[in-house]
# Entry
Amino acid sequence: MPRYHLDDAAIAELIVYLKGLTGGPVPGVTDSVLHCATIITPDANAAQRNGMLDVLQKYFFEKNAAVRPANPPRYSPRRTM
# Structure
């Protein structure tokens, strides 16, 4: 992880944020669904915005369409103990 120079106020805000994290349920995550989001600012270039969204939509479409076997083959040369 890169090192950042944080002033005392930023460190205090980071500590408050970290203390607020919980081990409870995460919004948008279930046993079978993971919702992803991105933020696009109003001043974003329309062509760049559409290009990024097209790539994301194609990626998730392909991932969601992939059928995974219940017991995928193991690629390790070691045998299961």
About this structure: Residues 26-66 form one domain. Residues 57 and 63 are 10 Å apart (CA to CA). The helical segments are 8-20, 46-65. The chain has a mean pLDDT of 84.
